[in-house]
């Protein structure tokens, strides 16, 4: 893999920083405090999930709410990717070629693209990167610290975790489940009843059930017969009720027929009377018809003359309208002639005013040009003067603001120094070291407590197994317990373990009290480190600001001198003098402004032109109006002629109107007689249909009387059929039988309940017996699993060490090759992991096997580089490494030795980044990045 670019925003001291890296060795060079290590920290945090120094809040630049890290790299697949991490926020990864599509499974994807095998964070922290002051320290650490570090790298700590964690829990779980099963079997056995006794009770209850069911069946037969008789009575009663209803209905039909016959009789009499009235009024009806026909003929003739009458009225109205219109037109012509004369006078007056204004305008234009020329000469001088004064004023304001901010920064610096001094007085380092010592003591005590708890459990288990003095493995008397009181022996051991645990817990509580202020002290230490860093930055910032302030003062002083020289050259005393001259000129220009005269002149000109046009329009209108008057006069003559032609037709129209009035009066006198005839003639025609309806009703009445007689005969037969049956007596017997049935059924219910209860008991007994059988089988399985778990734990306990030994053998071979390339010597690098020698490094050769601590500084560096190179090759495919201040605290000889060693190893890598403040590595670097 290869890192191509990193971009930081508001991260540590970097507000905005972009750094590009090349293939090969990249040297990140700069003085302390320039943020070199922060760049590497950002790469580790964003790409590999490495821890920050402090909290996220500490990593965000002071005064900012958030920060961003963006790393662009080429994966082992050859494609370019971008990882973005926000503080606070999440991490995202996407291909550079497709930034819209975020890739899923970030950690697994990054591990795959970086070619890392195992835990990405641990491999990065202990293989890829050599952190400041930690390059060889991991090989010089204590055995316990080495084991903690390299177990994580080799991922062998999982075996110890399985032994101490999951497998131990499983063993305890099986023991607990065995005890639970044994107690459960005993509990169930205690509550099981005697199945034979329950069966005998069940047989007795089943016999009683059969007797009661036989008696119940007999009662049911008797009840059935009674119910059939009662149903027969009820059916007959329903039929009787139905026939009574039909009889009532038939009688009601006969009554309705009688009423209808009476009504028909009355209607027939009314038709006879109507015939007589119609005969009396037939002559008047005929006269009415004849008169109506004559009236229609006259109205038709009159309607034809209505059009002529209407036309005559319209002609008269039109004549009156034309006479009025002609008079109005003559008046309008006279008004227009007067307007033309008035316009002639007005135009002469406006022409004179325009000529006067034109002379005034030309005079003011000449004066205006003179004054504007003088004003234009003063404007550049005023602008230059204002520019000088503005620059001087802005410079003074800027300096004052800058000085205030500088004072604020100096005040802030003093406050931070005071805070730092107060924290230094607290002797935090000594307290932290004391806390570390206390924590080590605490861990030892916790280990002893765990050990004694384990011994106590083992003592209890041994007590259970040996309480009969029989060895569970040899199945014979235990010789170790011969002649001893077993209970007292194990109780004394248990008491001793309990006392030791109580004493250790008391010691633990005392240590906890001492550690209660640890977080506060660590927080104070973090604040102190941050204050030291902030003070260094603030001092540097104040020095830069002071230099800027001095340059600003010098620049302002030069600007003021330049201003004074300019005023002497242009013979200007001050700004007010130029402004006074400009004001006088502007007043004169304003007074000589001819704009109002021009506006008035143009306005009068426009009005004059409008008046001329108006005169022309009026003349045209007068001519048009005179033609209209002539046409109106001709039209009036035509209308008068038409009115004379229509007069004979109007006389005939008047005669017809009088005839219409005469015939309408006659019709009104005959109208009542005509209506009486029409009304009664129609009613007289209904007599025949009414006679037919009368005959139909008589026939229907005869049929209904026969139906009624049949219904009454049927009713008498039904009433006679139920006289012999005593319904009341039957109902009384039915109630008695029902009560007896209910009593028998209640008893049967109790018997059935008891039978069900006894069957449930038998089923429960069977179920308990099956449960006990299953639990005994399960108990055997659990005991077998417990034995297998114990055997598994014994094997897993040693597995981690075996795995690490195999991996160390591979690393030894690669590390020896690297060492021989670096030094040209033939020694062998040995890395062992024995119980008493955890991850110890040796150099084996003519001098024998020398421990890492016994090697010279240069040899330690060469061996450490060789092992790290071997681990990188074994655990990653990235061919990438980082060194943070590798020469820190080394003398010149060890720095040179380290540079030579690193250079030899880095030749085989695709990319490496070295962060340092000295030039030891400059010559071998492909790219130097200076901060």
Instruction: Tell me the overall shape.
Output: flat
Question: Span from first to last CA?
Answer: 25 Å
Helical residues, percent: over 70%
Radius of gyration of CA atoms, rounded to a whole number: 65 Å
Descriptive account of the structure:
There is one protein chain. The protein is α/β, with parallel strands linked by helices and 931 residues long. Helix content is 76%, strand content 9%. It is built from 19 helices and 13 strands. A 5-stranded antiparallel β-sheet has the order 2-1-4-5-6. It has a 5-stranded parallel β-sheet with strand order 7-11-12-3-13. Strands 8-9-10 form a 3-stranded antiparallel β-sheet. The longest helix has 144 residues. The chain is flat.
Descriptive key words:
931 residues, alpha/beta, five-stranded antiparallel beta sheet, 19 helices, 9% strand
Summarize the SSE layout with pairings.
Blueprint: E1 2-11, E2 14-20, E3 24-29, H1 36-48, H2 56-59, E4 67-74, E5 80-87, E6 91-95, H3 106-114, H4 120-128, E7 129-130, H5 137-140, H6 143-154, H7 157-191, H8 195-280, H9 282-425, H10 428-466, H11 486-515, H12 518-569, H13 575-591, H14 595-645, H15 647-684, H16 687-721, H17 727-823, E8 828-834, E9 837-845, E10 848-851, H18 857-875, E11 880-884, H19 892-906, E12 911-916, E13 927-930
Parallel strand pairs: 3-12, 3-13, 7-11, 11-12
Antiparallel strand pairs: 1-2, 1-4, 4-5, 5-6, 8-9, 9-10
